[in-house]
Amino acid sequence: MSKYGTLIMGPAGAGKTTFCTALIQHLRNNRRSCFYVNLDPAAEDFAYEPDLDIKDLISLDDVMEEMHLGPNGGLIYCFEFLLENLDFLTEALDPVTEEVLIILDMPGQIELYTHVPVLPTLVRHLTRTGALGINLCATYLLESTFIVDRAKFFAGTLSAMSAMVMLELPHVNVLSKMDLVKKTVGRRQLKRFLDPDASLLDDDDDHLGADQPSAESTSAQTIPSGSTAAATAAAATDLSSGPTAVDSVMRGASFKRLNRAVAGLIDDFSMVSFLRLDSQDEDSVAAVLSYIDGVIQFHEAQEPREPHDEVEVDWEETEA
Length: 320
Description:
Blueprint: E1 3-9, H1 16-29, E2 33-38, E3 52-53, H2 60-67, H3 71-84, H4 87-93, E4 100-105, H5 111-114, H6 118-126, E5 134-143, H7 150-167, E6 171-176, H8 187-194, H9 215-222, H10 228-240, H11 246-250, H12 253-269, E7 274-276, H13 282-296, H14 315-319
Parallel strand pairs: 1-4, 1-5, 2-3, 2-4, 5-6, 6-7
Helix pairs in contact: 1-13, 2-3, 3-6, 7-12, 9-10
């Protein structure tokens, strides 16, 4: 018996749990069943109570307190512990039928999707190569406000491509929170972000190069020359205006070369494109769900519903 599901992934703050809530509501409105799995050991507030919660096995707060680990190290420990107790997932998901969409809500720590090998191991267990045999796809959310900063957008796109390569799953990449940028970005401009275009860097308006009073002139106005304080301020000015200063780095040639290299890499692989998502708009949620269903071939396994039997009417008696 086939199973179908999606991993909801992405950086912290991308709106993963909000999307899960909107997706569950949409499924319920359309009389479809789902099985909601929370795999974030730090998550607490849910609009819909998870059918399976990793915190019933292990929680991040307990790990940080008992193992004296930070949030990132504690999260990786939680997933390593989950891999040692995969029966926790198997026993809960094994009875799930093919009519049910399995929704797995993941944490937002980006290292899980880029270079830590725990998630690929978990995916192998969940998919056809493992014990559960789920037709699985990844839904990777990237916050749409990243498009305001082109460098940040291409870095986020690179993280999505890294997850695609690392997990070896079909991916549906999504720009979330579109309601925040609808009034600031035109449709024509937005299309260049949906299919990432390296030439976006050519017309990037760099705000960091704006003319501002220098630290040297400011210090000269406030500190008398010849004093020890003036000498200290001059040294600080030299550091703040040197090649390691934030403004200098962000508008420097090396930073631009790095961004172009990242954009070129994304363009060369040509793997990443995005869908638009506004979790407050049910039509937008339905559009993303249709792509998920298509990728995992959900509808192909569903038996066609029989039409209601026609009611036989004795017209002669009716007319009488």
